[in-house]
Amino acid sequence: QKSTGRCWNFAVHNAMRIPFMKQWNIEEFEFSQAHFFYWDKIERSYYFLNNIVETAKRGEDVNGRLVSFLLSDPIGDGGQWDMIVNIINKHGVMPKKCFPESFSSESSGRMNAILKSKLREYAKIIRELFTAGTAETDIQAKVDQQMHEIYNIVGICLGIPPVTFTWEYYDKNKKYNSVGPISGVEFYEKFVKPYFNVEDKVCLVTDPRPSNEFGKGYTVDCLGNVVGGRPVFYNNQPVDVLIDLVAKSLKDGEPVWFGCEVSKRLALAHGIEDLDL
Question: Does the global pTM surpass 0.90?
Answer without folding.
Answer: yes
